[in-house]
Structures are given as C-alpha cells and as structure tokens.
Specification:
Structural class of chain A: mainly alpha
Number of domains of chain A: 1
Shape of chain B: globular
Distance between the termini of chain A: 50 Å
Mean pLDDT of chain A: 84
CATH superfamily of chain A: ABC transporter involved in vitamin B12 uptake, BtuC
Helix content of chain A: over 70%
Strand order of the largest sheet of chain B: 5-6-7-3-8-9
Shape of chain A: globular
Low-confidence stretches of chain A: none
Radius of gyration of chain B: 18 Å
Low-confidence stretches of chain B: none
Number of helices of chain B: 10
Mean pLDDT of chain B: 86
Distance between the termini of chain B: 44 Å
Order of helices and strands of chain A: HHHHHHHHHHHHH
Strand content of chain B: 15-25%
Number of strands of chain A: 0
Number of strands of chain B: 9
Structural class of chain B: alpha/beta
Number of helices of chain A: 13
CATH topology of chain A: ABC transporter involved in vitamin B12 uptake, BtuC
Largest sheet of chain B: 6 strands, mixed
Oligomer: heterodimer
C-alpha cells in the first residue's frame, strides 16, 4: 500500500460496497444527530446524550443475551436489536427529562445514576450470559463502535437512512417551536405552546439519534457527535438558523472525512470521526477568536 | 371594558399559600402596577395570571375578547438567554409560535407585523445582530417586541427595568408609556415605587396587606408612605 498515493487509496476505498454503505449511513446519521445538539447544549442537557448512550449499551447487551438464549439469529437480528434498544432508550429519555424538570432529584444526578447503572448491568449481562468467544472484543466494539459501521447490511443502511430522514423532517417542521421552547420556555408556555409535548418530542428524537449513532461511533463517543457540531458553530455564527445549518454541515463533513481516512489507514472509524470533530472544533474556536479580535 | 377580573384569588405552590384574598380587575387601557416587597408573591401572581400555574382558590376570568394565551409577556432574563445564538428577528418572530398552533411556519402577515414591531421598538438597525451582543436595554426592547407579536391588547411586564442603568430605565418607561397611550393595556411588576406612582393609573399592592385601587387612592390611603418608610428602613439596615 506504500506506493499508492493518498488519493489513490481514497479512490480504491470507494470501490468497496461496504465503504459506500458506511458512507451513506454515516452521512445520514451525522446529519440527524447534529440537529438537536444546539438545543441540548443550550438547555444544559449536554450530558443526557452520554447517559442515554450507556442505557443503549445496557439495552443492547440485554437484547443480544436474549437472542442467544432464544437462539434467534436471522437477517432481522440487527433490526430487532435496534427496536429493543429504541424502546428502552426512549423510556429512559422521557424519564430523565421529567426528572430534570421536577428537580426532586437533580437532573444531572439522575443522568449519572441511570448511565452508570446501565453500563454496569450491560457488562454484567454480557459477561454472565454471552456465549461469544471474544467477549472483550464484543464489548470494545459496542463501546467504541470499532467496526460496526463497516459491517452494515443493505437493510440496516435503509433503516438508518429512513430513521434519520424522519428525525430531520420532524426537526424541520418543529423548528420554530423547538426554537421558542429552547429560548424561553415560560414565554412559550404562556402564549399557548404545548411546551411539555415538545420537550417529550425532543427526548424521543434524542433517543432515536443515540440508537442510530451507536452504529457509527459506538456508545462512549456519541456525545461527541451531538455536542461538537453545535459548540463549534456557536463559536462562529450568531443566529439560531445559521448555527443549526452550520452544525449539520460540520457534522456531515467530519463523519465523511473520518470514514474516508479510517478505511485506508485501518484506524477505528468512531474514534477517527470524533478526532476530526475535535480538530474542527479547535479550528472554529480559532476562527471565532480571530473574528472577535477583528471586531475590536 | 374589563379584560381580566380576579375574585378572591389565592395563589402559591403545592398547597402552600403565598397570597390570598386578592381581588382586582384590569380594564382596557389601564396601566396597572403591581408593587410589594421582595418575596411577597408578585412573580407567583404573574405566573398564575399567565396560566403557568393553577390558582389555589378563587377565580380569574378573561373577557373583552382577551384569551389567556394572548397576553404579551415580558419575562425576566434567564441564564440560558445570556449566551444564546439567535438574531433579533428570530426572537421577535418567536412571539407568534403560540398563535400558530399546528402550523409549522410563519405567514407573510406575521413577518410584516414582526417588522412593524421591530420598528416600533427602534430596533430596525439591529435586526441581524446577535441577541447576546446587545446591551441590556436593547435586549429588553427585543423581548418587548416579541411580546407585542403575541398580543394586540395587553402586555405583562415582570420587572422590565431590572439591571438597567438610570438613563436606559427612563427610556424603557417612556416606551411602555407610549404603548399604553396607543391603547395597549399594561400590567407591570415593579419594586420601583417612584416610577409606579409616575406612570401607573392603578396600583395593586401585595404583601401583608393588600391594596387595589387608583393611584390617587393609593397615595391618600397611607399605604404608600408606610411602604416607602419600610423599604427605606430595610435598605438602611
């Protein structure tokens, strides 16, 4: 491979269908995951993504143990697994958001409890019941998504694309309402916006995104996919619309680049994408800094 | 024409009563100032009027074509807003979201009305600016323009001059007075009794004792002097 130039390596990567599938899924997942980032960051819910991703890990462990026990293994195994993860993660998302509002147990404490608990139980299930020969490899790939995006079947890609499209469309149609509820919930409520409905919707969408993004970067790195695009564009842009559009573009570009770099280099996809996200964040911080200096 | 009528209202949280036996009414064109010590329950009263929490007893009725969701509310600033990336136009337009119900986007008429309210507040040169870069007084005008998008009849202001310097405060009171002169009913919470006595037509005093009536009655009732003395004594100590 040494004699191939970087571009030739990229070109070669495109000739594999698993790379194309990974790129399609990656682009759609990163598009949908970046949209709600701005809202979550501004509502001080950055960590809810992290907590929920651990819940999704626990749910996945539970699902895979269940399948092994019931000896189910067919084409649809991934889809079923996803469905179980979705249900459990959504339930937790709703509960956590409620806890955040009622504040009987602080929102952050609730997130921490649920997230650590789910992580522990997930590993416990896998360790106790899994029949897999390579347990630590399994756990590692769930946590860091090391190869899962490259092993997607066509059906999984279609599922990812459809769910991402639903999330994106919902976001577009609820855009003004989400803005109003994020900027000023009391005002929105007072003028008759059903704020609790939209908060519920936000938590359901977040849960869907988490489950989707687990394929791309694994459960430990999902927060990066939600937060970095939003934080980066908030450094540079000044209107909610510009910030939202920029985070979507930022996220898609980073994921695309990440996959393209990781395939020929043989690096893990998830951590490569997140590393590029971090680099992008640094770049945007610098641009923001330059802008402020120039403004003075 | 009566817009809001509260009868024997008691308010508070989770069955702990903050204020009780409040009765007052707001008529079209009034300028009502709600005054009282800190912690007297002014903000709770506002939240109850807006329907953000249920009254513990008594009744609030809306009439004269005013619905509860048609009150233009100017809340106090929250922590979230101080660092919020949003342009002036985006914030002003968000005043329409409640009225839009299920409709996902704004209409052309709403855009025109938002422009009008932006000009009314003298913000036309700032429309593209970011909210967090504006001065405190400009931010309040943006939120007031948003409130005007949500209502044609009544605005409800929660300490609109908190944290503003004296010159900007005077400007803010002037803007509110002009809106009132144009026929918009004003309910304002304030701890600034001097301003209340200068601009308001009616006073609602809440706290250990409750008073509701015209400004002239309030001054002659002796309530006012006791309150002033009390606040001076507490600020001296």
């Amino acid at each position: 491979m040494q004699d191939l130039s970087l571009w030739a390596q990229f070109a070669q990567a495109f000739s594999y269908s698993f790379v194309i599938r990974a790129l399609i899924a990656g682009v759609f997942i990163s598009l949908s995951s970046s949209l709600l980032g701005v809202t979550l960051v501004l509502k001080r819910f950055s960590f809810i993504g992290d907590g929920l991703s651990h819940v999704a890990f626990g749910a996945m462990a539970l699902a895979s143990v269940l399948f092994t026990a019931l000896k189910i293994s067919d084409e649809l195994e991934n889809a079923w697994e996803m469905a179980i993860m979705l249900v459990i993660t959504t339930l937790c998302a709703v509960l956590l958001l409620r806890a955040g509002q009622k504040a009987r147990m602080g929102g952050d404490a609730a997130v921490a409890t649920v997230s650590v608990g789910a992580l522990a139980f997930g590993y416990l299930f896998l360790n106790k019941f899994s029949t897999s020969g390579n347990l630590s490899g399994d756990v590692c790939s769930t946590l860091f998504g090391s190869t899962s995006i490259l092993t997607l079947k066509t059906f999984d890609v279609v599922l990812c694309v459809c769910m991402s499209l639903v999330v994106t469309l919902l976001f577009v149609f609820m855009y003004h309402k989400i803005f109003a509820v994020t900027f000023d919930e009391s005002f929105a409520r007072a003028t008759g916006v059903r704020a609790s409905l939209y908060n519920l919707l936000i938590s359901v969408i977040v849960a869907v995104i988490i489950v989707l993004a687990m394929n791309l970067v694994g459960s430990l790195l999902i927060s990066a996919l939600v937060i970095f695009p939003a934080l980066s564009s908030m450094r540079v842009f000044k209107s909610f619309r510009a910030v939202t559009i920029c985070s979507a573009v930022f996220s898609v570009v980073c994921s695309f680049t990440g996959i393209m770099v990781s395939v020929p280099q043989g690096t893990p996809v998830g951590s490569t994408i997140v590393a590029i996200d971090v680099a992008g964040f640094a770049l945007f911080c610098f641009i923001g800094f330059l802008r402020r200096v120039r403004a003075k | 024409m009566t817009l809001i009528k509260c009868t024997d209202l008691s308010i508070g949280y989770d069955n702990s009563v903050v204020l009780e036996a409040i009765s007052f009414e707001v008529c079209s064109g009034d300028y009502l100032c709600v005054v009282g010590e800190n912690g007297a329950g002014k903000s709770t009263l506002i939240r109850t009027l807006l329907g953000l929490q249920k009254p513990l007893g008594g009744s609030i009725s809306f009439s004269g074509g005013l619905r509860q969701t048609e009150i233009g509310y100017l809340p106090q600033q929250t922590v979230v807003q101080r660092d919020f990336p949003a342009s002036v136009t985006e914030i002003v337009m968000s005043g329409f979201v409640g009225a839009n119900g299920r409709r996902p986007f704004y209409t052309r008429g709403q855009k025109a009305k938002a422009r009008m309210n932006i000009e009314r507040m003298g913000l036309q040169n700032l429309v593209r600016r970011c909210y967090r870069e504006l001065s405190g007084g400009q931010q309040q005008r943006v939120l007031l323009a948003r409130a005007l998008c949500a209502t044609d009849k009544l605005i409800l202001l929660d300490e609109p001059t908190a944290g503003l310097d004296p010159r900007v405060t005077a400007g803010m009171y002037q803007v509110i007075k002009e809106l009132n002169d144009e026929g918009i009913t004003v309910i304002m919470i304030s701890h600034d009794l001097t301003a209340a006595l200068e601009y308001a037509s009616h006073i609602l005093h809440v706290g250990r004792e409750t008073f509701f009536g015209s400004k002239e009655d309030y001054v002659s009732s002796g309530f006012c002097e006791r309150f002033l003395k009390g606040s001076k004594a507490s600020s001296a100590s």
